[in-house]
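Journal club prep, shared notes

We agreed each person brings one worked example of a sequence with its structure written out as tokens. Mine is Iron-containing alcohol dehydrogenase. I'm keeping it raw so we can talk through how to read the token line rather than staring at a rendered picture. Sequence first:
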Amino acid sequence: MHNFTFYNTTRIEFGKGKETNIGEYVKSFGVGNVLVLYGSERIKKDGLFGRVTASLEGKDISFKALGGVVSNPVISLVRDAVKVVKKHNLQGIVAVGGGSVADSAKAIAAGAKYDGDVWDFFIGKAIVKDAIPVFTIMTLAATGSEMNPYGVVTNEETQQKYNLGGPALYPKVSAINPELMATVTPDYLAYSAVDIFAHCLDLYFTAKVFPEFTAALIENILTTVMRTTDVLMMNPDDYNARGEFAWASTMALNGNTFVGVEGNSFDTHMIEHAMGGLYNVPHGAGLAVVLPAWMKSIKNQMPQRFERFAEKMFGESDAEAGIEKLTKWFSAIGAPVTFAQAGLSADAVDPIAENAFGIAKLWKMDQLYPQQRIAEILKLAVK
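Then the structure, token by token:
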């Protein structure tokens, strides 16, 4: 095992009704007023917004509410929210939604403690050193944002989908109530499953030092995701399946899968961020297109690991068969696996490759991924 430091400061509150305790969680950190951030107005119709705000008011916590966060969240809303937080001297943020809301909340929290443009954190012009506290109530499981210090936001003017991060951005408390996720639509359940796969497989297929413990943990996460996704497609109200899916999502990107690992990178995310930034493809949908193509392009670099993946996940001995089985499963659950299925034409290859190369340079991966190589990977998904 490679030397490692494990650090995670997020407290998880898991189970039915946990969202109704949000006032208590916020109060325990000495926070007296917050921004309640959310996406769709649906949370007002289904009563979630009312339960959250009642809990806050029950602990004498005042709030300002801001909705409108979208899938592939945008920097313009983040900037507007930073102004609201500063104007009203808000001390924290309660994010109610999925990864897009949680990611936006982290960016807002960093911007609240910064005098410059919050986009500076995304382009490496500034480092996140401080942030106001973030609390999350998750209504969708996919990104693991509830228990990690990262966030991804799109600059709609420059069409750059970039990330920020830093220890100050770990949520203080995250409430995970699987019942709140029962209304996730089948397409977004599929996209969520793919996102979890990509979080795991980016690591699984790039790490140079990869302990057996970590490999087995990832394989268990992925088999859990496959099993529970299949159950939830048939019965969205299965609480146990929903709960296991949610916890697998959290475990995939809360630091546990990085224990003892060395030399990993997030290759498929680098490419998908360009796709999403340019064409607003849902994150998981873009990853469903990119991941199998990327796996085909690198399978000969780590043949034993690909053979292990095929055997552990699908009972196959051949690496190519493992990739094919994964691709078929993505299709079976309703995720796109080609450009055409994602609503893209072959003409999108070069713009995506160019945009992704910009991310590669920012992530110091440009030697490994010149623009032409990225284009060649993308062409494997043009059918």
